[in-house]
Write a structure and sequence with these properties.
Number of domains: 1
CATH superfamily: Class I glutamine amidotransferase (GATase) domain
Distance between the termini: 10 Å
Length: 204
């Protein structure tokens, strides 16, 4: 096994790398497609704005590389913006196209009384499909750490494996399709539940 961390110049690589090392893995950093030689699993620790992330990936030749990797059903784990870019578009950057791996768009939380935006802190993720391969051992409502103002809204709900509610707004907290898994929360900051999730991904 060889885990590659996608470095587009804006992600939080250190925390994810530390989580992987605690699980006995020594990840490689992938800043361009040729760096991925021998990689068996890819993780994209997203942080930042949708449009900027896509631009950086395009500039480094990583956007088409990721699309091909996922189209071939090779293991991919996207976190936060690494999840959002899988969709077609985002209200955060209306002129920017995502990877269009999944149908749907990324939306901003609607304002409502006493709702804090960004959504920051611990929240439960309610399993919608039970113990899938990557959701093994997590139970029905594990808690994870979130920090975001936007969230994906898939048009095809068959890939959704967990939903999260912030205020009165429910959104797709995580998706799983084949060897692809992506989530809006940060497993690398979510203690035991997050490490279990990452380990389940590595076990693919």
């Amino acid at each position: 096994m060889k885990v590659g961390l996608i470095d587009y110049g804006g992600g939080n690589l250190r925390s994810v790398a530390n989580a992987l090392r605690s699980l006995g893995q020594d990840p490689i950093v992938i800043a361009r497609p040729e760096d991925a030689s021998g990689a068996t699993h890819l993780m994209l620790p997203g942080q930042g704005e949708f449009g900027d992330t896509m631009q950086r990936l395009e500039t480094r030749g990583l956007a088409s590389f990721l699309k091909n990797w996922i189209d071939e059903d090779q293991p991919y784990f996207g976190i936060c913006v690494g999840y959002q870019i899988l969709f077609e578009s985002s209200e955060e950057s209306p002129q920017t196209e995502g990877l269009s791996i999944l149908s749907g768009s990324v939306r901003r939380f609607q304002n409502e009384p006493k709702l804090k935006i960004p959504h920051m802190g611990w929240n439960s993720a309610s399993a919608t499909r039970g113990a899938t391969r990557i959701w093994q051992g997590l139970g029905e409502d594990p808690y994870f750490y979130y920090i975001h103002s936007y969230f994906p809204a898939p048009t095809d709900l068959s890939a959704v494996v967990a939903t999260t509610t912030h205020g009165t707004q429910k959104f797709a907290g995580a998706v799983e399709r084949g060897n692809l898994f992506s989530c809006q929360f940060h497993p690398e900051k979510s203690q035991d539940a997050g490490l279990r999730l990452i380990q389940n991904f590595l076990d693919i």
